[in-house]
Design brief:
With 221 residues, this protein is mainly alpha-helical. It has nine helices and no strands. Helix 1 packs across helix 6 and helix 6 packs across helix 7.
Length: 221
């Protein structure tokens, strides 16, 4: 007896089409986040912006977090791609990034939304936390290079300096979103001056209180 077996094959054209739809949806998600609040963007909105059906979105990205992660990665890679010159140091690099945030606040809204996901106990939380930690590590590596070459002076480690610089940068991202009247770049420049002074300032050596130090008993000779 012969058996008729139906084998589903994926041709090169099918793979290319899937990749094309995924890229189209990613770009549409960026446009949607630029137009709407973070919480207002969902699969239906992305489908409408992309000009495809909702089924197309679910087929390409069965999970909404998967589409968000791909959009996040692609958008972050785009940031800085049009810079006409390279930053001379880590702090200037972060300032350039902040200037790009000012011009593209939709990305900042996504970054703020992703922090909520990273702090939750979901399947994608660890992936977003990994992205966050990778960026902190990149900053520490850049600062260590600046410290080693004398571009920056610091009495603290590059890892601690990176944590402080990242906190400063993210603080101004929040200001950008909730206080649009603030000139975040001017405030950044002022804050960085204080940050650099703190990095260079020697840490005080604790003074010993000799009265509180117990004396050794005098042993008879």
């Amino acid at each position: 007896m012969g058996w008729d077996v139906l084998v589903e094959t994926r041709t090169d054209d099918t793979i290319v089409e899937e990749q094309t739809i995924a890229e189209r949806l990613t770009r549409a998600a960026i446009r949607a986040y630029r137009m709407y609040a973070f919480t207002d963007v969902d699969a239906a909105v992305v489908a409408e912006v992309a000009g495809v059906t909702l089924e197309d979105v679910h087929r390409a990205f069965p999970s909404w977090d998967a589409l968000l992660l791909v959009t996040y990665d692609y958008w972050v890679q785009l940031r800085g791609s049009t810079r006409r010159r390279k930053a001379s140091c880590a702090i200037e690099h972060v300032r350039m990034t902040l200037a790009e945030d000012v011009a593209d606040p939709g990305l900042v809204r996504v970054l703020a939304g992703v922090i909520n996901i990273a702090g939750a106990e979901t399947s994608f939380a660890e992936l977003f936390r990994k992205r966050y930690e990778e960026y902190a590590t990149e900053l520490a590596t850049a600062l260590r290079r600046d410290f080693d070459t004398g571009v920056e002076q610091s009495v603290i480690t590059a890892e601690r300096a990176a944590t402080q610089l990242l906190a400063l940068y993210e603080g101004f991202q929040i200001q950008l979103l909730v206080r649009p009247g603030v000139d975040v770049l001017a405030e950044w420049d002022e804050a960085v001056r204080g940050l650099r002074e703190g990095w260079r300032k020697p840490r005080p050596v604790p003074a010993w209180d000799l009265d509180s130090v117990p004396t050794s008993p005098i042993l008879p000779v």
